[in-house]
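subagent[fold] <- orchestrator: predict structure for attached chain, return tokens only, no commentary.
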Amino acid sequence: MGAFQHGHHAQAFILLALTEGPSYGVKLHERIEKKIPGNKLDRPFLYRTLNRLEREGKVNLHLDDSQSGPVRKYYSLTERGWNELAEFEKDIRFRVKTLSFFLDEYGRIMKGK
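subagent[fold] -> orchestrator:
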């Protein structure tokens, strides 16, 4: 418990963090960890997911070499990314409803025990 599963919904949190505006990997990682304390998202997974989202057309990649040091890769949501985020919202609402049913039923059963 307490760590992101490297699965389907971790991507939803990455897309959600990008709704605040374009960001590069380290800042995006910090943004996610700050908003969801206790849930660790490792950076290699974040970068692999960003690369996949870019290949799928859900995020745009912009290279910024205006700063000193290495070129930064800035990511931003595309329309396709916003659509994917809306699909995650529907899926998560359904899962919350289903899990709430489980918790309610379990609580009812345990009261009767």
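orchestrator: received. Logging for downstream: The chain has one domain: 8-111. The mean pLDDT is 90.
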